[in-house]
Amino acid sequence: MSAVTTRQAALERINKAFQAAVERFIPADESKPLRGTTFRDFELQLQAFKADVIPIILEQRAALTDSAEVTEAGCCPHCGSQQTRWAGAPAQKEIRGPDGVIVLTKQHGRCRQCGRSFSPSGS
Length: 123
Ligand SMILES: [Zn+2]
Description:
The chain is an alpha+beta fold. It has 2 helices and 5 strands; from the N terminus they run ααβββββ.
């Protein structure tokens, strides 16, 4: 089992997304206009800010877990059998969370004993 990124790479990706979102909210270039006029306008803009940043933080955090990528399908979580195999290549899966779409890479295992499929990493 291992992470699929490093902390440094994850932080760089998060910081890049954060800085881009801040720039959209408050452009450093004073020739660019600030958007909105009311506090409600600002709140609505920050909803988009959250959607731009939080999914990336979640993706990076998931990529840092020790179980982000496993080398063996392991034990079936349904019946406990060790007779498992990989069921195809890892695939990108989109998950819609409260703050936007998160893209995770999922590995798929299949149990030879009970025939059910599962995610060996538990994602
Ligand atoms: Zn099973």
